[in-house]
Amino acid sequence: MRIPVIAGNWKLFKTIAESLDLVNELKPLVAGNHGVEIVVAPVFTALSSINDAIKGSNISLAAQDCYWEEEGAFTGEVAPKLLKDVGCSHVIIGHSERRQYFGETDLTVNKKTKAAVSAGLKAIVCVGELLAERESEQTFSVIEKQIQGSLAGLAVEDFAHVIIAYEPVWAIGTGKTATDGQAQEVHAFIRKLITRLFNQSVADAVRILYGGSVKPDNVKGLMSQPDIDGALVGGASLKAETFAAIANFNV
Ligand code: PEP
CB under 8 Å to 156, separation ≥6 — which residues? Predict the structure, then answer.
């Protein structure tokens, strides 16, 4: 059985005080929901405060990125073990905004994923095609290349710490969600690919999240698909009420 994950990516939004307001409003709204892994990913500077605020709650903490080295002369970077140290259990890796604006490639995503997993973090590894790639019928080949590159060299046992997020780039922040069928088709493809690259039990167990304009009114349809195991939520995670409505899709 795959426990659903609903993760909120707060991107570059909110001060520490605003982040605390949001999480303090969110906590009671999701408190009764123990059937879902609920995760929030604030900016780095708010991680410590949010970690204090969620203690004893059913909300987990994620960072939005990490580096692959443990320490050294790498100005500006943050190592997975430091994310553990500040209270993170999860880290988002290879978000399309990182790939698009910060030069992330499947190779850097792969290094970060391995480093995160070996530090004991759950890596939420993002893949997704551009609109032009979908329109030219390259969706499956793009996803295959991204999955193969991003997860290369992982051992079967590493998958206890891997979550995949399928986020079609054309659906992120645009209000255009993939239809339930479009999302399911790619999720099923990814699960088959994981069977081929790793094995059936890894594929059966790995959570595959959908991301791209998930809102309270479309989450149920998406979550009713057999291969969709949760959501990575951007815009709608910035308000407690809408994120709670998404996280509580099951109640
Ligand atoms: C995201 O940033 O991962 C995302 C899916 O954003 P949005 O929900 O705003 O489309």
Answer: 198, 199, 202
